[in-house]
Amino acid sequence: MKPEEHFDTKRSTLDEIHESFFDEHNVRLLIKRDDRIHKDVSGNKWRKLKYNVLKCLDRKNEGIITFGGAYSNHLVATSAACKELGLKSIGIIRGDELNAESNVTLKRCSDNGMNLVFVSREEYSQRNEKYYQDEVVSDHPNYWLVPEGGANYYGVLGCQEILGEIDADFDEVFVAQGTTTTSVGVALSIPMEVNLNVIPVLKGFNSIQEMKALLSLGGFESGFVEEALEDVHVNSNFHFGGYGKYNDELLSFVSNFYKNHKIKLDPIYTGKVMYGIYDAIMKGQLQDKTILFIHTGGIQGASGIEDKAGRRLYA
Ligand SMILES: *Cc1c(COP(=O)(O)O)cnc(C)c1O
Questions:
Q1: CA atoms lying within 13 Å on the CB side of residue 128
Q2: Quick check: helix, strand or coil at residue 302?
Q3: Which residues are within 8 A (CB) of 170 and not within 5 positions of it... i.e. 6 or more apart?
C-alpha cells in the first residue's frame, strides 16, 4: 500500500451546514472535512506531512525528526504517521522539565514509538536556525528533518491540494493559522476571484510577514509573493487571548456546534475560526456569499477540555 492510501483524502468530504440566521444574510456555509482523513493524523497535519513522508521514503531515511511543544498536534500526527508507515520518529520537545508521562499528547507520541528528546527552552528557541538544524541532522544523519508544525516547502506543497478536491463554487475561504503553512498552500492554489480569510490563533501575530517568510522558502520572486497575498484578509480579533487560550463563551460555542451539527471543533484552532465566521455573518459582512471553511482537524488536543463548571466539550 502506498503511503497516501493509509491517509485517504477521499474521506475529506464536503459538507454543508445551516442555521436559520444564515437565511437573513443569504449565506451558505460549506465545510471541507479534513478532520476525517485519519483518526490520529487528521486535518492539515497529514497535508503537511505527505510530501515530507514521501521525501523521507525516497531518500531511504529511517525516520523523521521534528520539533514541538508539549501540546503539539503535529508531534502526535508525526509519531502516528511514522508508526503506521514503519518509520522511526524523534521529537525534540520544548521543556527539559517534561517527560513522556507529563500529559496525554506526549504520552500518545511515546506510545506511538516516538523517541522524545526534551531540551531547554533556550535550546528550543534555536529550532528554526540553520546552524541548529544542521547540527541536529549531523547528529541524526539518517533522519529527514521536518521543522516545527511541518512548516517547510513540502508542507506547503501538500496544502496546495486541499482546494483542488472541491467540486463546488465558493466566494470566501476561512482557515486557522498557526505556522501559516496551510494558509500559504491555500493562497497558492485559490481561484482568482475567491478571497482567503485567515484567523491567527496567536496574539500579536504578523500573519502577512510570516506568510511571506514561508513563501520565500519556495524561492518565489517578490512580485509574485505580493500578488499571492493580495486577496488575503487577516482577522486578528479571534485569538481569545492567544495560543491555547479560550474562555467559556468559546467552549459553549464549540459544544453547541457539536450538539447542532455533530461536527467536533477544537477551542485552539477551528473553534476560533468558526466563531469568527458566525460573527462575520451576523454582522452582515458575508452577505450573499458562499463560505468555505477548511476543517483542519485538531480534535486530538481538545479531548479532555472542560469548562469552569466541569462540563466536557462534546458531552
Ligand atoms: C496545527 C493546526 C493548525 C495550524 O496550521 P498551520 O499550517 O500551522 O497554520 C490549524 N488547525 C488545526 C486544527 C491544527 O491542528
A1: 11
A2: helix
A3: 30, 194, 290, 291, 292
Which run of H or E residues covers position 43? none
Q: Which amino acid is at 266?
A: D
> What's the distance, CA 182 to chain centroid?
6
Residue 28 C-beta-side C-alpha neighbours within 13 Å: 10
Q: State how far the Cα of 99 lies from the Cα of 76, in Å rounded to an integer.
A: 15
CB 271 within 8 A of CB 254: yes
Contacts of 1 (CB under 8 A, 6+ apart): none
Cα–Cα nearest to 161, from 82, 3, 49: 49
First-to-last alpha carbon distance for the chain, in angstroms, is 37
State pLDDT tens for residues 31-90.
999 999 998 898 999 999 999 999 999 999 999 999 999 989 999 999 999 999 999 999
181 lines ligand 1 (CB under 6 A): yes
Which amino acid is residue 120, in one-letter code? S
Residue nearest to atom 5 of ligand 1 (CA): 178
Burial class (CB within 10 angstroms; exposed 0-12, middle 13-18, buried 19+) of 197: buried
- Which numbered atom of ligand 1 lies nearest the CA of 297? 13
For the entire predicted model, the pTM comes to 0.96
For residues 34 and 45, give the distance between their C-alpha atoms in angstroms, rounded to a whole number: 9
| Cβ(68) – ligand 1 distance below 6 Å | no
Q: How far is the CA of 29 from the centre of ligand 1 (A)?
A: 20
